[in-house]
Each structure stands twice: as structure tokens, then as C-alpha cells.
Amino acid sequence: MKLILASASPRRKELIKSIPFLDVECVPSHYNENFIKCETPEIYASIQAYGKASDVFRKHGILTLGVDTVVAVNDRILGKPSSRDNAIQMLKLLSDTTHKVISGFCLHFSDKIIVDYEKTEVTFGVLTDDFIAKYIDCGSCFDKAGAYGIQDDMIQDIVLKISGDYNNVVGLPVKRIEKILMENVRNGSN
């Protein structure tokens, strides 16, 4: 099955390729991701995913997957940090707390559109100022929501608990996507 992933993320590309029956092409979306005001992070991530998928589907006309991942603390959305100071603020906010990682996703078939989200809770231990500075210095935080990558060795050392799908925290709820695709292939969507 041919699928376009509306993303340039190397992490998403690697994860989607784990679904064996997919022939995946990555096409970055040109959807304007300016912050929009929404009632919840779940709605925000879902709208952004829909925008990305629809933008690419209009140009290519085949099954397209758009995804947007955000980190939320008490429904405050943390996207990608815009600066070192912004990354410091985000990581301090996440220190010694449980936060949500929400990936909104949109599967744009030729005959229907499915929009949903996956939510995972992550609990961090205390992040010292020294830890935050060293982590930011490695440069990994700037292209990730919430200023961290769960797959980074330094971050794995401070994670106390993950409740839900680990791959969702990386940026793609693979099992949910695969299940939806399987259900829709059987029902004739493409």
C-alpha cells in the first residue's frame, strides 16, 4: 500500500517504515503551523495533523498521513523551542512532573478522512540546572516538542515512568496507525 508521510522528521520516517505492508514516501508539508488557539492540546495537535495531511493530499491525491506531536503540562502546549532560553524554560517546567505527549494524526484516504490522537503520560525526575545546560548543549532539543527527545540517552536517565505508547512520545503512534490502516484496507478505502 502506497502512503505519503507528510513530514520531514527522520524519527517518523523510521517508525512508519516499521509497518511492513506500506510503501512510504516522505513529502514535507507546507502547511502554515502558526499557533492556533484551541480548547485542548488534543484538539490543537489534531488540527495541525489535519492541515499537514490535507496540504500534501491536495498535491498528490494518494493516501497521506499527517502527524503533529506536542507536549502539554496542565494543558499548556509546549512546541519546539525557539531559543536556548525557551528550551531552558520548557525543561524547568517538565522537571519533577508528569506531562502529556499528544500526537494528533490524520489519515487522508481518497474517500474519507480519519483524524484522531494518541496520548502518553511521561514522568520526569528532577532536572538540575547543570543537567539542563548539558542537554541543551548537545543540540538535540531544538527540533523536538517540549525541548526533549525520549530516545536521547540523557533523557532516558531521568524518565521515571511512561504510561502509554513509547513510540507516540518519539512522534508516531505506530500501532494505532497500523490498526486503522488494516481496518480500512479490509473495508475498501485507499
Describe the structure.
- The mean pLDDT is 94.
- The chain is an alpha/beta fold and 190 residues long.
- Helix 3 crosses helix 4.
- Strands 1, 2, 3, 4, 5, 6 and 7 form a seven-stranded mixed β-sheet that branches.
- The chain contains seven helices and seven strands, in the order βαβαββαββααβαα.
- It has a single domain, classed as Maf protein.
- The chain is elongated, with a radius of gyration of 17 Å.
Ordered list of secondary-structure elements with their pairings:
Layout: E1 2-5, H1 10-16, E2 23-26, H2 41-60, E3 64-73, E4 76-78, H3 84-94, E5 98-108, E6 113-124, H4 129-137, H5 153-156, E7 159-163, H6 166-170, H7 174-186
Parallel strand pairs: 1-2, 1-3
Antiparallel strand pairs: 3-4, 3-5, 5-6, 6-7
Helix pairs in contact: 3-4
Using the 3D structure, state the CATH architecture. Alpha-Beta Complex
Domain count: 1
Distance between the termini: 8 Å
- Measured by DSSP, the beta-strand proportion falls in 25-35%
Please state the CA-atom Rg, rounded to the nearest Å: 17 Å
CATH class: Alpha Beta
* Helical content band: 25-40%
Encode the helix/strand succession as letters. EHEHEEHEEHHEHH
Low-confidence stretches: none
The beta-strand count equals 7
Multimeric state: single chain
Major β-sheet annotation: 7 strands, mixed
Global morphology: elongated
Number of helices: 7
